[in-house]
Amino acid sequence: IKNLKKFPEGFLWGASSSAYQCEGGWNQDGKGMSVQDLHEGTAEISDFKVTSDFYNRYKEDIAMMKAMGFKSYRFSISWTRIIPNGDGEINQSGIDFYNKVIDELLDANIEPIITMYHFDLPLELQKKGGWLNRDVTVPAFMKFAKAIFKAYGKKVKYWLTINELNLLVLMNMFGQDFLSPTDKKYTIGEAFQIGHHLFIAQALAMKELHETFPKCLIGPAPNISSVYPASSKPEDVLAAQTAAVFRSWYWLDAPVRGEHNPIVIKWLDELGFNLEIRDGDDEILKAAKPDFVAFNYYSTMTVKAWNNESTTSKKSDQQQGLGIPNMFMDAKNEHLGKTEFGWSIDPVGFRVTSREIFERYRLPMLLTENGIGVREELNSDMTVNDDYRIEWYKDHIIEMRKAISEGMEFIGFNPWSAMDLVSTHEGFQKRYGFIFVNRDEKDLRDLKRYRKKSSYWYEELIKNNGNNI
Ligand code: BG6
Fold it and tell me: Alpha-carbon distance 7 to 11, whole Å?
């Protein structure tokens, strides 16, 4: 590309976090327990009780974000701070906490971007069947939605429904436990039924916000990645298409087009599962009309046609090892390097993915996660020279700028994460932040904050609205 376009004025440069991974204060001021509070950690890995202690240190963190020139900060609301048992009384201290956070952000000229729900279902709802029990959990989610829209809808313009709805369902099939850490695993049919209930909850929330606060904007926030075929063999290309439907498109077709992608429905049918879709559900999905597509992008996936080789011994997590018998299996991509935690590094794939999203849905895009998880320590002079992170973001932001130059619409870039926080499954050792939090896996040290080298680089980039890249 010869002439790169400038980033649009008002572009939302910032970073992300989620409540259960950074707030701590797991039982402070009336907060109820969420399914994540069941994680006790292991001998090596931290639990979620203190995390980065944002609950008690939000002012300090927001001051650092301000110093970095953030235009936006994406964070999630802990459902159990607002409604401790999921569907009962509202806890005023919870409402007050996020009011304070939002006011602090607005004072610093930082646009809050709220994720309504990020992996932390109230435990009491899980005990009643969780997302599989539609008649309990969907109305409970709507009660929570109405409470937070009422409390913050006048001040907060940007909203995201459910973080990585797709991975909530898919990871259940592939061995991780975002849905119910201690429960039995759900069957495939149950997991996709849960997916449908999440679609309904998400669609109802979008409609509710549009009706009550017409100036607010809202969209889904799945984890999307393009899928490459391992070769030009037609069977591999077909496998890659299928994998993309399972990994990405099924989860955006529902909120954006109001449709269930038929390839998944056919597969469920052949396995003997029929989704229970009630009268009126199609109308609910069609009426949602998101304003943008928010998405998390870490890396692409490469697959080949299923060939009965065993994949069970391979590590699988949210970015690797996915496969579905008789359809597709994970394959090596020899063109891509890997992070120390095994995730492929693919900045060009970010452009590929954003093109595919825009081609399919023609909605503005908001990047809500991207980043590199690394083991890091403070130098003796309290610095962290994270040149690899600078490199990572430079490479990804250049690709985003190219995508914008060729006509894709982006409204913001909010990578993972603002400050170091507890990873979903690998504890505090896997750090993503611009801000170093001084603790390790088990030793809380003093929890002090230090800006990493990348934060100064990002500050300069934001000052230039990204156009210095
Ligand atoms: C996304 C999640 O899956 O990736 C975050 O939305 C998560 O909650 C992030 O932390 C990075 O994954 P991990 O497993 O390295 O923490």
Answer: 7
Q: Which ligand 1 atom is at minimum distance from the Cα of 318?
A: 3
Catalytic residues: 369
| Predicted local distance difference test score (pLDDT) of residue 174 | 67
Return the minimum-mean-pLDDT range out of 175-189, 192-206, 366-380: 175-189
Is the predicted pLDDT of residue 313 greater than 50, yes or no?
no
Q: Is 146 in the pocket of ligand 1 (CB under 6 A)?
A: no
CA of 318 to the centre of ligand 1 (A): 8
**Neighbour tally for 182: CB within 10 Å:** 11
- Ligand 1 pocket check for 414: Cβ under 6 Å: no
Question: How far does the centroid of ligand 1 lie from the alpha carbon of residue 241, in Å?
Answer: 25
Say how many Å lie between the CA of residue 374 and the centre of ligand 1. Answer: 13
Query: Distance from the CA of 234 to the center of ligand 1, in angstroms?
Result: 33
Question: Would you call the peptide bond into 417 cis, given omega within 30 degrees of 0 as the criterion?
Answer: yes
What is the distance between the alpha carbons of residues 144 and 141, in angstroms, rounded to a whole number?
A: 5
Pocket test for ligand 1, best of 52, 299, 301, 424 (most atoms within 8 A of CB): 424
Which amino acid residue places its CA nearest to atom 14 of ligand 1? 424
Q: pLDDT tens digits for 216-264?
A: 999 999 999 999 999 999 999 999 999 999 999 999 999 999 999 999 9
Pull the structure tokens for residue 70. 């953030």
pLDDT digits (tens, 9 = 90+) for 40-91: 888 889 999 999 999 999 999 999 999 999 999 999 999 999 999 999 999 9
CB 299 within 8 A of CB 349: yes
* Both tokens assigned to 245: 């439907």
Q: Where are the domains of the chain?
A: 12-463
Cβ of 223 less than 6 Å from ligand 1:
yes
Q: Has residue 318 got a pLDDT over 50? A: yes
66 DSSP assignment: H
For 444-462, how does the pLDDT look when each residue is reduced to its tens digit (9 = 90+)? 999 999 999 999 999 999 9
12-463 homologous superfamily: Glycosidases (3.20.20.80)
pTM over 0.95: yes
Q: Is the CB of 373 under 6 A from ligand 1?
A: yes
- Residues 112 and 71: beta-carbon distance below 8 Å: no
Distance CA 211, CA 283 (A): 16
